[in-house]
Amino acid sequence: MTLQTHRMNFPLSEADARTLKAGDQVIIDGEIVVTAGLPTHHRLIGCFDGKEPLPMALQGQSLFHLGSYSREKQGGRGADDLELLYINPTTSTRFNPVMPRIIHELQLHAIGGKGGLDGKSVEAMQKTGCVYLSFLGGGATLHTRAVREVLEVGWSDMLMHYRLVRLRVEGMGPVTVAIDAHGQSTYADAQTQAAARMDSIMAALDEGRARFAAATPPTTS
Question: What's the whole-model pTM score?
Answer without folding.
Answer: 0.84
